[in-house]
């Protein structure tokens, strides 16, 4: 008398075989033990007539046919699914519902009848689904195709009819283990086994000993067995659910602290001789598992992930799908930039003037204010931008390369057909991916990196990418084959539909990166431990809502509707989301029983500090407070917990060199004693760390005012360097004079000046659709220069407002803006239209103000955008350009146009700001005095926003001395990080300055 044991998973079957082999037994693969699916598959295969002459459609083909059916709903004006017909959710739901109905042989007719019984919204939805199911069946029948559900039914039929199935030869008893979710399909199998005359023993956990959450999960199974009370050969066997011999509990502050702690304990167990394969680390969510995998990897623990991430999560696969979406959305600029700057794409361009890097192309696209490939497109905007680059030869060469390259890339993306057969879509996408070198780049071999430079994390990422790209490659080959099999070879799909299909397919394929199996710690979910035993179980992330988790309800048929339909159909046909909670709870208890020792952990908050509650399953265990280990919030592990040299070194250096007074945690006494050992282990490294510590200490002392500026905060002290600087680099010389703005930059923060004017660091500018304020300022200057020149030439000073003056102002605005449109980036046309209207209004307001009150009594506008210098003031040479000078008898008024409001400008014109933080007006006044040979020159800011002047100021008497003193500080190498109030807010050098970054971190 032989018994066939049915298990929940293939891993459980394998575990039993291992146990048998270890005990000296003999294992015949394919006999004695199997999963339910394997049994049905074997039966359907062994009875070739079971599905008649039908061709097996396969899962990909099913998706294609469901897609066609769902598309029919979109086109059917009477369909209630019309609103969601194009959503991915509908297709998934339909696929799952068709499968569940099909496995228990519920056709459109039965569903229609159930819909009538149920009535209401559930009935209406069910009728709609029945119509789609009829279309689905019609398609299968027309093509002579059998789906997976038909295959299941055929297998069950073959079993019931006594077909010769090798797996069931000589079998009298079938015993099920850890199978607790008996849906309609499983019950069909049970009935088939009974019909074959076999005795069936269903082994279930003994309810009396179960936690309430687990007992609930078994309710439907008990009911199903009860309903078959007349089946004499059916037996329910209750087996006590074991409980781990030892359970400990840990409360961690964050998921990363939990992951580190678990990794530490696993590492210790492995070091103590526990075989890695007897340790399981379980968590319910992919995010938590990923964090655990990283932590284990960092401690050098070999890990075998039971559920590798889906292929669609790998960056190169996401890029491939994004290409289709880009083509659909008109290649929007920022997403296009993301694409070309990705390391997986050949985004650089090789032109006559050398290589143009992706970030240069990105900057050009932003400066050109192009937004997407629709409407004006990229070509026009880039051409206008390129005309502005013709000032220098290299720039113009690069501009041409950029224009050509962007054109090529956009055309390449748009060559993905808007509508085509699956075969054509797949073939074209492959061509585009190859031209972008995605396959090549995802392989991770880069000419500029040696293999020793590639770290462990990167190696893992490369392995993941390669595995995912293999899946993509297979999917692009499988989809056309499946379409042909499903009779959809000539059917045309939109790009969006093809993208959705490919995405779904890749979401269900696992990017299994190979690597260790066997002597490795298993990382998976709780359900994977059913029917197996491990020495240690680390059950992680036991927080409310995560374990057990309730999956979202089906968007097409909610649980209430399913319950009503199941009742009408007379069985547990459509699975319920609510049941998944009970199943997850049972899976947890089963896993807990599978371990000799269980280590349970949860977190009091998420990574961002939001509080979390522990799982109700832990509440059921109700551990006393005293046994729960609470982990401290220690970003750097204490020495006793350090498991890598890096961690030990960090802790030792923190203890020995850290600022004890500013720390809250207790001293780690052991760590200090380890310094000599760390020094011996890696002397150069400790030297580097000691140096960094000393540097940081010195910086801190400067910022708290204990010491003068020094080299680590921007003060240069090397005599040779200073001499070289003063001789050739530092502005303020005749051949490289200082501008008023650079003097102000120094006054605002010497370090900012050093970066900008000595090192010539470029500002990191984020360009968006609005014209940037500097470009806008130049436009105002240009308009006012031309307008006042024309007014002067036409003898219209003093200004009298009449139609001719207003017309002239309009004409000048028209001319300047037309020229700027040709050569300058002006932002999005709609947004610039707003700025243009504002400009015209402000220009007229300026004219009206001046018609009422001239800026300086007795002076007429005479000079516009007048360049001056280089002029010496003491030993400092200065140059610049003055926006406007109104000249009268023996006197003049300098006007400096500003687009801002008057209030802020008035602050800069105060006496205590002049020649301290505010240098523009004094410098311009002094320059005009010298250049025009006048004794009395005043200067004023002109707020164009308010058409108002600030008070007029004169050059202070000690102007030269103050300028010389400021320059002397520059020559002495004082470039310390010493910002005046609010200087950091508008610095523009944030990316190169830690002060700003630290301030941001503090503010956050
Ligand atoms: S961010 Fe502040 S401290 Fe840093 S360079 Fe700019 S102004 Fe100076």
pLDDT averaged over residues: 89
Work out the strand percent. Answer: 5-15%
Helical segment count: 38
How would you write the strand order of the largest sheet?
Answer: 10-15-9-16-17-8-18
- Biggest sheet, open or closed, and with what strands and sense? 7 strands, parallel
The beta-strand count equals: 25
Spatial extent as radius of gyration: 38 Å
Kindly report how far apart the N and C termini lie: 72 Å
Shape: elongated
Structure description:
The protein has 1004 residues and is α/β, with parallel strands linked by helices. 51% of the residues lie in helices and 13% in strands. The strands form six sheets. It has a seven-stranded parallel β-sheet with strand order 10-15-9-16-17-8-18, sandwiched between helices. Helix 3 (58-75) packs across helix 4 and helix 27 (675-681) crosses helix 28 (683-703). The longest helix is centred in the middle third of the chain and has 30 residues, at 456-485. It is elongated. The mean pLDDT is 89. The structure holds iron/sulfur cluster (SF4). Iron/sulfur cluster binds next to helix 31 and helix 38. Iron/sulfur cluster binds at residues 749, 751-752, 977, 979, 983-984, 987, 989-990, 993, 995-996.
